[in-house]
Amino acid sequence: MTPLARMSRAEAARLDGLLFDLDDTLLSHGVLTREAYGALWDLHASGLRLVAVTGRPSGWGEVVVRQWPIDGAVTENGAAHVVREGRGVAVSMEGDAETRHSRRARLDALVHAAAREVPSAILADDVHARRSDVAWDIGERVRLEEDEALALARLVISHGARTTRSSVHLHASFEADDKASGVVRFLRTRFGEDAGRALGRYAFIGDSANDSACFAAFRTTFGVANVRAHLGRLVVPPRWVATEERGAGFVEVARVLVAARQS
Question: Please, what is the Cα angle at 118 between 114 and 121, to 5 degrees?
Fold first, then answer.
């Protein structure tokens, strides 16, 4: 990883948009600070397209696209897309109703199996706002021991599901998309962006293992400083790294991007 201070203005200025994770990237221990919220408005005013890309539920996406100066939210690690439509919002997912119902039934069976085999694993408190996945709390309200988290991940895989892990949750899903493919699909369907161009002209900022796909896929990637704790779970680290952690690191990146566009 290269310190953010060494990024050239030319590279920062060529970007069309910023894709950003929520927990421990924009948010600081779950809180949206005044400075981070102001940074979102500064990025919006600079003309950058902004998309939240998160493991959080589509129910969260319905709130943030109503209230924040962003162009959409790719939620549940890529599966559910949320956009503002008039005074309301629209949520879209791939697959017909029968396919989604079948996947939901398989997730319910997996939840029951986890309750039997890893009883210490507690479902995340936002699980009822999810459409396509389930998440267990490993570091938000409770802290799951590492051996128990690994046992839970193995159980998810044994049921044929895909698992991802953020700084706060361990997820299970039968959906095909990860964060990278999900946001590329969003940019294509919502804005007509060519996939290859999107990977080169949009930047991504994140902090943890469930951001791995985006760190590997996009040309310009940023990590807030706390990403260092998760490097062992990243195949490809972010290209640039901020000196500050969490929301303060997001603000640091935003200042670089806004200054480059102003010049």
Answer: 85
